[in-house]
């Protein structure tokens, strides 16, 4: 008899699924659009999720959260923000995930697009970050602006090499985004070359959230790179007097390694930016 409540829960859940006729699951209010880069002719699937109030509040415009590595990040951010946004704890936003170019494998696409210098020691192509940033700015931004009700607030979310790309955009095109969430950034690329870039001045205010798993060091998780040290060096660069209008928050995620840090990075960073 002590198992009866558990059995009743399983029966109730089974009946609920049957009543809703669920055979596959799709993220609500989401769609996928292909956008072509006119310079490279590469085509990138773009995942878009609209807020719950979008259809009923026709006069409202929304901030946009842009994610790299969409096949991984879009599901995580959609799920993690659903409850706080729908209950009014967070400001609602349109979520846009930028996926990998069609016809190439994920590693090839992201290594090419997220690194800012060519490195002949890599087997895969590197060094197309500026080209990719221009594609986002000149093709994706106009598409989103012309098809959805958006305001001027744009947030970048990137992890690992995506964090490196975010730092590169921040230093070279700072006003592309209002806010930056940089998870476990690959500062180590090209012997920490990203730290040598002279940042372009910006009078705009920016909020920057940097997070890293506390175990992302050679001692625990990363045999070749100390990602914790790299994130701390990036924090020091951004916390210097060169950035009077920048607000930076740093989070070391207890017990997290490179494979597990991002979900916490994403929700904690977005909650910091969008909490009411």
Automatic annotation (TrEMBL):
Supply the source organism for this entry: Pseudoalteromonas luteoviolacea S4054
Tell me which domain of life the UniProt entry assigns to the organism this sequence originates from. Answer: Bacteria
Keyword annotations of the record: Signal
Q: Which residues form the signal peptide?
A: 1-19
Q: Which InterPro entries match?
A: AB_hydrolase_fold (IPR029058), Esterase-like (IPR000801), Mycobacterial_A85_antigen (IPR050583)
Q: What is this protein called?
A: Alpha/beta hydrolase
């Amino acid at each position: 008899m002590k198992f009866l409540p558990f059995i009743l829960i399983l029966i109730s859940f089974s009946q609920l699924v049957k009543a809703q006729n669920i055979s596959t699951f799709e993220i609500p209010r989401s769609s996928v659009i292909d956008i072509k880069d006119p310079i490279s002719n590469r085509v990138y699937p773009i995942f878009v999720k609209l807020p719950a109030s979008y259809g009923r509040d026709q006069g409202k415009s929304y901030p946009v959260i842009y994610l790299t590595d969409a096949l991984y990040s879009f599901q995580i951010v959609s799920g993690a923000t659903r409850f706080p946004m729908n209950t009014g704890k967070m400001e609602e936003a349109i979520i846009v995930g930028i996926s990998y170019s069609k016809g190439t494998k994920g590693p090839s696409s992201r290594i090419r697009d997220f690194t800012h210098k060519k490195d002949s020691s890599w087997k895969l192509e590197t060094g197309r970050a500026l080209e990719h940033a221009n594609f986002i700015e000149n093709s994706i931004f106009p598409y989103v602006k012309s098809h959805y009700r958006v305001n001027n607030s744009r947030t970048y979310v990137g992890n690992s090499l995506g964090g490196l790309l975010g730092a590169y955009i921040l230093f070279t095109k700072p006003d592309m985004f209002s806010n930056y969430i940089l998870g476990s950034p690959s500062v180590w690329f090209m012997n920490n070359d990203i730290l040598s870039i002279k940042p372009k001045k910006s009078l705009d205010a920016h909020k920057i959230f940097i997070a890293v798993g506390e175990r992302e060091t050679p001692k625990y998780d990363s045999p070749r790179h100390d990602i914790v040290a790299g994130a701390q060096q990036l924090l020091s660069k951004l916390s210097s007097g060169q950035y009077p209008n920048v607000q930076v928050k740093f989070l070391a995620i207890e017990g997290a390694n490179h494979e597990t840090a991002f979900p916490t990075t994403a929700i904690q960073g977005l909650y910091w930016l969008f909490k009411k």
